[in-house]
Amino acid sequence: MTRTSTSITPEEIENTFERCPHCGTYAVKITDSHYCDTRFTSSLTDRERDQRITADPYPADETVAIVDQPAGDAFAYHELDGDNHSLCTLQTDNPLAYCTRAEAQDDQYAPCQLCQRLREKQEAEQ
Known about the structure:
two-stranded antiparallel sheet, 16% strand
């Protein structure tokens, strides 16, 4: 029998998708395409965050990226390559927002340590 309707049934949704317990995003069950877990929740104290911000050696006016999501869930800003992609393998379903390093720091974002290590490595190889 050929189905003429293009609507998806609740049963088809339940059999195909699962909802992330951390952020509520739906993802296809068999693909592992959604990477949201507690590693995106900051465990930094205010003092540790301030230390990382103070130790950031890069120019305050450079553009960095933050994950555009509700406050409290994101805590790091990311270094960018020439195509405005993060240097680390950032996995998020949310878009990136771009700002200066100083603006990110003023909003209490700390540097992504993986991005900084990758940048340091790239600069050492040049």
